[in-house]
Design a protein that fits this description.
- The protein has a single domain (8-118), classed as Arc Repressor Mutant, subunit A.
- Helix content is 43%, strand content 3%.
- The protein contains five helices and two strands; from the N terminus they run H-E-H-H-E-H-H.
- It has helices at residues 8-23, 33-39, 46-55, 81-92, 112-118, and strands at residues 31-32, 67-68.
- It has a two-stranded parallel sheet.
- It is globular and about 45 Å long.
- It binds a DNA duplex through helix 2, helix 3 and strand 2.
DNA sequence: GGGCTGACCTACT
DNA sequence: CAGTAGGCCAGCC
């Protein structure tokens, strides 16, 4: 039997995985949407990550600001309230913006240990 | 029912 | 280096 219409429960399960991955991003680290999707077991569904973050309730306190696009830039409209919000939160965690973009490699979670031992 | 939009990505030209 | 094309999928009109 082929379910053409996925049950809401399945969608919620996918969202839950995405939220879990995002919640697991350490402070001061940054991931892009595609990477989050891949870690959540949903390769090729970066857009779903964006929607999941948008639907995430505030009570969850997800570090949504640690998720940016593949170019290391904030995917919100430049100058917008949310844009500045995310920028503020990231800078508060020690994430540096270079020419309006973040060095994803430098702020990758895998390098968190390196930064902790050797510094930035 | 169909079509457009969107907190996207990769690859190619 | 910038622009285009194809892929992906859920919500909303």
């Amino acid at each position: 039997m082929s379910n053409k219409t996925p049950n809401p429960t399945d969608n919620e399960d996918r969202y839950r995985r995405i939220w879990d991955v995002v919640a697991g991003i350490p402070a001061g680290c940054v991931l892009n949407y595609g990477e989050v999707a891949r870690l959540a077991g949903l390769p090729g569904r970066a857009r779903l990550v964006g929607r999941a973050l948008g639907l995430a309730p505030r009570s969850m306190r997800l570090p949504w600001h640690r998720v940016v696009n593949a170019q290391g830039q904030i995917s919100f409209k430049p100058g917008g309230a949310k844009y500045r919000r995310q920028c503020e939160l990231l800078e508060a965690e020690g994430v540096a913006f270079v020419d309006g973009a973040i060095d994803l490699e430098a702020h990758a979670p895998s390098r968190a240990l390196d930064r902790m031992l050797w510094g930035p």
